[in-house]
Automatic annotation (TrEMBL):
One example GO MF annotation: identical protein binding
Name used for this protein in its record: Trimeric intracellular cation channel type 1B.1
Transmembrane segments: 51-72, 84-101
Keyword Ion transport on entry: yes
Leader sequence residues: none
Cellular localization per UniProt: Endomembrane system
Bilayer topology annotation: Multi-pass membrane protein
Family indicated by similarity: Belongs to the TMEM38 family.
UniProt entry keywords in alphabetical sequence: Ion channel, Ion transport, Membrane, Potassium, Potassium channel, Potassium transport, Transmembrane, Transmembrane helix, Transport
GO cellular component: endomembrane system; membrane
Organism: Eumeta variegata (Bagworm moth)
Keyword Hydrolase: no
Matches recorded under InterPro entries: TRIC_channel (IPR007866)
Listed PANTHER family: GH25683P, TRIMERIC INTRACELLULAR CATION CHANNEL
Length: 152
């Protein structure tokens, strides 16, 4: 394939508007991962400890931003100040853990929906890597190693 085609595709991904659809896909897959990590006792744990369940889901959703902020010497909890993204994370957490008859969880686990969400999350990841490297380049213009580490 032509390298120009890849460049055009990369420029289109950079210009994509991520909010709210790509954020929803990312939050949904993170909430599913937390629920699956809890195993068979997910329902009872989420009912007994809703704050711990919510907090672990939010840490999963915002982990990348928190790690990058720690590496760049910025406030670690800064990603949580994005209220619309926090609301999306909270709503998806609620849908995955608390909808009646586990409808939200079952719909999210439905393979075609999960595949579409995973594809959207990969596009979201590419955009976040670009944004992270751009941010590191603004803070440390000649530190290529820092840009590479943040891009990882």
């Amino acid at each position: 394939m032509d390298p120009e085609a890849f460049l055009d595709l990369a420029n289109q991904v950079i210009k994509l508007k991520m909010y709210p659809y790509f954020d929803i896909a990312h939050s949904l897959l993170c909430a599913l991962a937390v629920r699956e990590d809890l195993g068979a006792g997910a329902q009872s744990f989420s009912r007994k400890h809703p704050l711990a369940c919510w907090l672990s889901t939010m840490l999963m959703i915002f982990a990348g931003g928190m790690v990058v902020n720690g590496l760049l010497g910025e406030p670690i909890l800064a990603p949580l100040k994005n209220t619309p993204q926090l609301v999306i994370g909270t709503v998806t957490w609620y849908v995955v853990f608390y909808t009646p008859f586990d409808v939200g969880y079952k719909v999210a686990k439905f393979l075609p929906i999960k595949v579409v969400a995973a594809a959207m999350k990969e596009i979201y990841r590419a955009k976040k890597v670009y944004d992270g490297v751009s941010h590191a380049a603004k803070l440390y213009p000649n530190a290529y190693l820092i840009m590479i580490i943040v891009g990882e």
